[in-house]
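One record is kept unedited as follows:
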Amino acid sequence: MRLRRTLLGMSQERLGNAIGLTFQQVQKYERGANRIGASRLFDLSRVLDVPVSFFFDDINPAVAASVAEGVPGLHEPAAAPYEPDPMMRRETLELVRAYYRVTDAQTRRRLFELVKAIANAGIVTADA
């Protein structure tokens, strides 16, 4: 939810207003402090202009299989330690936005190659 909202440049307050919630409730949903019901998920998908399935793209295959068998949640594996997705970080989103603001295609391509070279140099240095 946060990823899509941020990609659209939408504030928590604006999203909350669109679905009749306070920005604090949107924060709780984004942090996972509160569960999102089916009807609210539908409202969110409509406002964020994505199909409801968008919110299930990263679902654990074991969970999906147990739901398909009609036994949701009974045989779930232990939860893995939480590791934040780098694609959800504000820094990543700002970097992508800045990259696409570069209008010259050749400059943008050179920037892309430069970042790849720096990243590969860092990996080589770290392994050595």
